[in-house]
Prior knowledge:
The structure is a single chain. The protein is α+β, with helices and mostly antiparallel strands. 32% of the residues lie in helices and 34% in strands. The chain has three helices and four strands; from the N terminus they run βαββαβα. A hairpin with a 2-residue loop joins strand 2 (36-52) and strand 3 (55-66).
Amino acid sequence: MPLYEHVFLARQDxxxxxxxxxxxxxxxxxxxxxxxxxxxENWGVRxxxxxxxxxxxxxxxxxxxxxxxxxxxxxxxxERIHEDVIRYLTVRVxxxxxxxxxxxxxADRDRERDDxxxxxxxxxxxxxxxxxxxxxxxx
Length: 139
């Protein structure tokens, strides 16, 4: 069967429980039509690059789907109707990623960097003080 990665964005006003219920509803529709969801990742509330339907943030959810194209058509139809879904995107892939997705790996990497106390400068240590410039302008 074809493999798909499906990401949908839910309104920021929706609670985590509502997003989880929506995810369960979509998963139920997929399994009801003979497909299966191999992985579900909730990426949490993230900022959007630009406003979509008056929202600046959204809940991001990834589903790895194994099933025919009719399943994708049905879940996209349901998401068009659902008022909490801002956007969705489905991409056909040759194979699903093993382990966490790139977004989850980035979140883990950012969390580790914050725990170390490092930032952009990393392990280079603090910056040394600036020396006075040799070129002084005289009037």
